[in-house]
Amino acid sequence: MPYDPMYVKPMREELTSLGIRELLTADEVDAAVKAEGTTMVVVNSVCGCAAGAARPAIALALKHEVVPDHIVTVFAGQDLEATERMRSYFTGVPPSSPSLAILRDGELVAFMPRHNIEGRTAEMIASALTSAFDSLLETRNT
Length: 142
Known about the structure:
The protein is built from five helices and five strands; from the N terminus they run H-E-H-E-H-E-H-E-E-H. It is of the alpha/beta class. Helix 3 links the parallel strand 2 and strand 3. Helix 2 packs parallel to helix 4 and helix 3 packs across helix 5. It is globular, with a radius of gyration of 14 Å. The termini are far apart.
């Protein structure tokens, strides 16, 4: 059973206020994954590590001079169909909430599961994200 929409509304808005596009259906996920270029996916969550570290880290990382071409989010425990479909593209990794993924032309190239978010500061996570962003730019330019 999904979480109450009123309960998760502020958690959603924390990302959408940054310009991150919510994907609410499997069809929206499929279209986003097929987008050319790099796509960062935020699997949002109600847990404390999402609130205390993941979402603040994303806000910090998006201030970096290099960012992915597209940034989208699904909400685990709320958008069940969209989350399940998105996770189907994360080949070789178990489901994790929250988590951060980077796809290039639909292929998973980086993944940060919950156990790499828990216990870390927003600054540590943002640093890992911006390093991944820089690596994507370097491989795109070679």
